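LAB NOTEBOOK - FOLDING QUEUE
OPERATOR: T.R.
BATCH SIZE: 2
PURPOSE: Compare the predicted structure-token outputs for two unrelated chains run back to back under identical settings.
PRIORITY: normal
REVIEWER: second-year student, initials M.K.

ITEM 1
FIELD SEQUENCE / FIELD STRUCTURE:
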Amino acid sequence: MTSASTISNGTAPIHAAIAGEALIDLIRRPDGSYLPCLGGALYNLCRALARQGVGTQYLNPLSRDRFGRELAAQLLADGVHLARPEPVQPVTSLAVVNLNEHGHPDYAFYREGVADRAVSSQGLGAACAALPALQLVCTGALALDARDTAIYLPWLADQHAAGHCLVVDANLRPSVMPDLVAYRAAVHAALAHAHIIKVSDEDLDHLAVPGTDALARARQLLHAHPAAHLLALTMGAQGAWLLHRNGTQCFAKEAQPLRVVDTVGAGDSFLAGLLAHLLTQAQPTAAGSLAEFVQVLSVNACQQALRHALASASLCVMEQGCVPPGWAQAADRVVQHPAVVLHG
């Protein structure tokens, strides 16, 4: 990154490569109509990282249909680079989103024969190999579909072997997976390659991780995947944890309740804030790769990164749809609205 406070542009080095779904969220409005919004967890993560000043490339293709053109235009407007700039014939994925009284989304997906699934392990690997400054490789969510393991698992293994810092956001969507047992196995297979894992308390429920509460289950999940150094656990309004393999535990929660419009993109903005802060801290240290930096992360570094991640998520939930904040917005919120932060 040239600076964490500036959006990446055509001359900035690309430090992050993201693979996964890009889709249209059709969000049900009170009158019964549906509002089309650009979305997809990994698509949102691309936008959020670029807005936080991280040179970012989106690896999956986008459709030549109207929705695909809109998805591409927004990525480019946010400073994201496209590994596949030429549009493809398959249509754009759709997600029908119904929000409950607390603003939490429930999804139904339409993803057969769609553009973002028109990828191969070899193609993803070639795109990453063409990025000399690449440090961070991310996937998760719908890319962890058991039907796509032949694409993503070999690619993740190759990226791990190449020394890149791997991030997997579990972000489970069990309602759209035909075989939940196979889906859980695919998610765990992807998590086995990760240096950084992100899960929500709901993800832990869906993965059937043992433990008396979400924190205990998060510790169990980290223990079950020895390659991981860091695990981020988000719990909505109840706050978030960062757990390190060395035993460090940091917790953060907003000091005051937020004015929540909806939670679409909150987890993606949280993860982007976390990764952007880790990249910013790692760069001046010259400690080698980002994966090596994360391996020896200090308590203070964990706390700072968690504060920035929480502020990023909080700013997102106060907007309709996914509107990721920039670095300066999140950094300002950390100062102006300090969270409650604990560590052990």
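ITEM 2
FIELD SEQUENCE / FIELD STRUCTURE:
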Amino acid sequence: MTALHQPARADGPLRPPVRIPFPVVDEVSRHCLQEEEPETVHIEVHLPGRLEPGRLRGAFAEALRRHPRILMREVPGRWYRRRYEWELTAEPDVEVVSFPAAERDPLRAARTRALTEAPPLSLSPPIRVEVVEGAGPAEGSEATDAVGVRLRGDGGPQPRAAQGTVLFLTINHTALDGPACLRVLATAAELYGGRDNAPAAAPTRAGETPPPPEETPSNWSPPARVAPGTPEPSPGNGLLVTELPLPHRPKGSPYTVNDQLMVTTALTIAHWNKEHGARPRPLRITMPVDDRPRDTTMPIGNGTRLVEVPFSVAELSAHDPGHMPALLHRTATRTRALKSLPRPQLGHGASLLTAPWAPVAARAALTRGLRRAAAPWTSTTLLSNIGRIPYALDFGEDAGRAHAVWFSAPARMPRGLTVTTASTAGRLHLALRWSRALLSHGDGAHLRDLFEHYLHTTEVTP
């Protein structure tokens, strides 16, 4: 794992601060930072009630102390140093929680900041929490800057009242990932509301892991890219979030909702590429796998490992209605087999790149060069399915329990598109995030509609 277990803190003023060398994922991310496309993870939590500012700040301050690995900043150093290092701090360098002044469209403004302004690595902790109160209905906030949300249900749009609160958590992804920050948020919710936010038990899967299927596309051949839509002149990422019904899955199905989302993502991109005249090619979809416990012992940092799920052209071009159950079953077999294989988080090559055999400046230049050279072999897209939010995120009587939680992951080229999903209160919360060098807001809306269509097609009987 990249994330390290919470170390002992320095107790006295004469003891030097605790320092930790950057783990592999952190260092690779640090090498490849780009100012025009910040490596941020955005988490958006919708609550029905209001939060008291002083109480919330106190709850977050205590939550940070209970998860001290999040209280860290990058140690400045010379170009010839062999390692980047994190320095653990006893207290935050900055106030984490803020209440932005009233704005014309506060949801859009907060989402834009989450995509464009990464918390600095030089200040502890590298996260930011913005509290938007009375933001109004999410419906209708689709904007020209490609930051919007649509709430959908079986009966069409369902806007919510304006009495609630939205928490926007922005994470510098070089330091930690979404599930780790969500763990800290759950602790803050429990401290604020006084209610149990212990994680729910993870679902169990019966049966042994089957062997990987034969005749899967080779990882040595370049996969399909997401076909360009209408790129925008401004740099950075665009974002669109949507609420959908969870897809129906017959009882006893050999596949999971994650497998349905994987197939949906593959079919969506195959349809999009066909519409845009791209030559059919196999797809590869990167899937983060997180094996960490969800209780208070969860290691804080970047703790997921990445696997790549392949799809052949034939699998994605079949039009036989009876083809879907077989595709879902094969996908389930692949994902279970891939998740069961032991593998370093970013593969064996990343471990060699981050070994301290040369100064960080030299290894950074080499890493960026290799990343550019390997771009044609990079997976088509990334699907990060958080799954059912394991915590109640209950902030007590006044603020209430979260009824919607969205995540989004960075979408730099060459992928240029990431799909992030989570489920709360029996609903699916989908975030599409893209590089504006590849797609526009209108393209994102079309991809959302395709995703909704193909998600429905996975609701089949065995």
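REVIEWER COMMENT (ITEM 2): The radius of gyration is 22 Å.
FOLLOW-UP: none requested
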